[in-house]
Amino acid sequence: MKRILIVEDNDLNRDVLSRRLQRRGFSVIVARDGVEGLALALSEAPQLILMDLGLPEIDGWECARRLKGDAATRHIPIIALTAHAMVGERQKALDAGCDDFDTKPIGFAGLLEKIERLLILQPA
Questions:
Q1: Which of 49, 78, 94, 116 is a good FRET partner for 124, with 20 to 30 A between their CA atoms?
Q2: Kindly report the CA angle at 110 between 118 and 103, in degrees rounded to 5?
Q3: How far apart, in whole angstroms, are the C-alpha atoms of residue 55 and residue 98?
Q4: What is the mean pLDDT of residues 36-65?
Q5: To 10 degrees, the CA torsion angle through 44, 49, 55, 58?
Q6: Nearest to 82 by CA among 30, 22, 8, 32
Q7: Is the pTM of this model over 0.90?
Q8: What does the pLDDT average to over 56-81?
């Protein structure tokens, strides 16, 4: 079973996304802020991370930079999630190390396609 780490500070967003992914057969780990997200990425070794960019403590851009800078976690694909669909946000997320980007409200079918594509590309 593929394990996904959701790093999201909004309870409703985190819970809805978690339930939808579990119904699709994924194991889900949740973190409420960037500090917890970094710790869980190291301790739980998820196969993919869904990273909200507007997090307390350490924001999603910095989390992505730290994860991609660490040999233990750099291989984990990260999909950035944000409610800010401003010009340049996608590129800023990619520059921080995210592998893909999606805006909120999340279109689940499109997000699922991105998840599946990144999991296929990930080394076994």
A1: 94
A2: 95
A3: 15
A4: 96
A5: 60
A6: 8
A7: yes
A8: 96
